[in-house]
Model the fold of this input.
Amino acid sequence: MILSGLKRLFVPTTILCAMVVQTSATATPLDTPEVRRACEGFVDLFMTGKRENLEEGLTQELLRLVQQQSGGTGVHPTLTRLGNVRNTTPRYYFGLPTGMLLHCDAEHAHGASRWEFGLNYQSRKLEYARFVPVTEGAPTSRPNPRSSFPTPSDASAACEMFPDLC
Done:
């Protein structure tokens, strides 16, 4: 299910930010509605590519990268080929000192994708996002040369991967 509009994206993000501040820096259960909605909202942000939503939801550096990789459309050509999202599934979530790391899988009309997002609590903007298309259960090498995402075992490993969020 795709969520539309940035309002739906940032309401669960705000709840997630508050939830993480109250928990230790370990993996958070993924069966909460807030985590699921944040995953859906983040994926939807990149699937729709609406300029105003991207400007509000991404740091300037990430926005420039998205515009460059998408040829100015806001949607990467690979995502267009994968088609509409049917379902998203959170895989892991870490609360970090100044942000969070969320990894999601998305099932599309013509394939699947793996996503990783880094959100800064203070700016409430995504500082980091990447996806990898998945074919028959194995990630391909495009558009990211790293074919799979390393899964941090704890918050210190996640901080090593994403120092700006710690």
Q: What stands out?
A: Residues 6-165 form a domain with the Nuclear Transport Factor 2; Chain: A, fold (CATH 3.10.450). The radius of gyration is 15 Å. The first helix runs from residue 6 to 21. The longest strand covers residues 85-96.
